[in-house]
Amino acid sequence: MGEFQGFDPARVRELAVHLDQVAGSMAPMHRRLNQILQAAAADVAPQSVSTSPELDPVLSTLQLPGGVPLPLPQVSAPTDFPVELLPPSMSAGALAAGPMPGSLDPFLRQTAADIRARCDRLEQVVRAAPSTAALDAGNLLNALVDLDATPKPDAGEEAVAKWWAGLTPAQREQYLYLKPEVLETLKGLPPDVLQQARQLAYFKVVPYKTSSQESAGSTKLTIGIFELGEGFAFRTEQMNDGTYRVTMIDNGQAGVKVKGEGLSLSAGVKFEYGDTWVFKNKAEADKLQDDIREAFLLRMQEKTPDMNPMGFASLRLAEVLERLPEPKLKISTVGVETQTEIGSAPTTLGIKFSSNVSTINSTINERRPSVTESRDFIVEGTVTRGKGVKADTGMVLNGTIQVVRDKNNPDPDTNITAVRVIRTVEGKLNGSFGGEIDGKVLGASGSYKTGQTRAQVVTVNVPIGAAPEEQAAAREWTRTPPVAALANPGVPAGPPAPDADLFTRLAHRRGQVSAVSYEGNASELKVGGKVTIEGIPFGFEATAGNKEDHVVGQQYLGAPDPETGERTFVLIK
Q: With 50 as the cut, is the pLDDT of residue 135 above it?
């Protein structure tokens, strides 16, 4: 990690705080000054009350008795302000255009916000730069760039070279340290810059959550062997890049379930739709989270006629959604699920298999919107012991394959920007208690489950450039059988074989790999009832759950050793 010599961004932030405090006192102070000058104008008319340039904004609204304006001097420039840091709207002319309380207050506040934004960028560069980097704080402070203003991967070499040549050294540092994974896909950069970008890209990983909290609920109706259900979930996640994501999910399912002596079989199809809002920090997330939570509850009410009299919930939902910004992620999923349970109390063995296909539309980077095709396969095994009070342990293995495409490019043969493999291994240990009253006609059941979870998520992300050979290698890789993702995510730690295919070599040279461990807890309350009419059982079941988790270990795969080609994991503290 780099550092600034003789420069402390935290002290600069204090200046922003002082400017905000001063801004709050400017309006009452200048209101009183305006009153004094108004009174003085009546006494000294028709002479000017003052010829001071500093008082020009205050005097610009004063008038002599009878509506005659006071003669005012022209202000050439404000003094004692870091004008090189100010937006154009806060120029001398803009300041002199109105009374001081109406112009200086936002001037100070915008300056404070600008200082904070520049300090945020400085700290990002510090965290991303190598420890040997010599950083010029003064130049970086003046060189706040739009990180999304890089050329597109298919831009010509001449255009890329011209863009890079037009940047200052401080601007280049920001792109190099904060967007190396984008630079390494561009043609036209100097060879040494491209090489450095590729090395730095090893230390960039796909964003992952550092903590999350989810509340969920579902209902299920059983008619004979047929089951129909729908559910909802509300999830908040803090990401490793400091952003917050709030997600609202609707899901539904339909299937069959057959239960016999010592054996239970079920199979079904499920659908899920999710909207995710992304916020830069917790304050922004908190500001709109109440609206998102209200929309979540109203959407649940809308699905239940008794809770939506005269369409009130629907009308209210439309009002709340109108206040919200557009979601940054839209996810739709369709999948199949089978589940088998063998045995009877006190010991039951269970296994569940799921296969899902998802489409994820992202506008997190508005200049580079993407669509991700995702396939995942989940196998969950459980062992349950006990009757009224039960203990169960289980293991969940999840393998996911994703292909990320540039939505600005409709050509499927040239628009792949990344391929990704994610492996999740989760262990569960739960305790539950409950009971069941099962008569010939009526029945009721209820249970409460709580326990601990442990999970490790390994993500391998391989950026794909615009070169035809890289695009072809990525397309070929997507056609391979995905079963291997369940067992091995293909971490490119060792050097590839001499005859390795291009994709394997790309994964080794530039693959971004993270291994993140989580601990958490989960709870679930389930109640149900059934009635048998003319031999056909009708059942209803409602479930409410909550789960939380947080990071307990983070690692990334470092760059290849220049001699051996080996890549080793580096601990993130």
A: yes
3-state DSSP call for residue 551? strand
Q: What is the mean pLDDT of residues 99-114?
A: 62
Structure tokens at 456: 């490790």
In this structure, what are the phi and psi dihedrals at residue 52, rounded to the nearest 5 degrees? Answer: -75, 125
Q: For position 459, what pLDDT does the model report?
A: 92
Q: What is the CA radius of gyration of the chain?
A: 31
Type of residue at 477: W
Overall size of the chain counted in residues: 573
Strand-pairing partners, residue 226, are 223, 256
Collapse the DSSP code of 305 into the 3-class scheme (helix H, G, I; strand E, B; otherwise coil) and give the result: helix
pLDDT at 105: 61
In contact, 345 and 354? CB cutoff 8 Å = no
CA dihedral 261, 262, 268, 274 (to 10 degrees): 130
- CA–CA gap between residue 254 and residue 199 (Å, rounded): 49
Q: How far is CA 338 from the centre of its chain?
A: 31
Alpha helices in 379-493 (DSSP H): 468-478, 484-487
Residue tagged 């002319």 (tokens): 93
User: DSSP assignment of 407-435, as one string?
Assistant: TT---TTT-EEEEEEEEEEEEEEEEEEEE
Alpha-carbon span 429 to 505, nearest angstrom: 40
Q: CB under 8 Å to 152, separation ≥6 — which residues?
A: 368, 406, 408
Between the alpha carbon of residue 517 and those of residues 455, 457, 510, 553, 555, the distances in Å are 6, 6, 23, 5, 9
Range with lowest mean pLDDT among 107-111, 226-230, 457-461: 107-111
Alpha carbon distance 152, 149 (integer Å): 9
Q: What is the pLDDT of residue 479?
A: 81
Cα three-residue angle 405-409-411, rounded to 5 degrees: 85
Q: Would you call 482 helix, strand, or coil by DSSP?
A: coil
State the average pLDDT over residues 368-394. 90
> What's the pTM?
0.69
pLDDT in tens, 441-491: 788 888 899 999 999 999 999 989 888 999 999 998 888 776 665 555 578
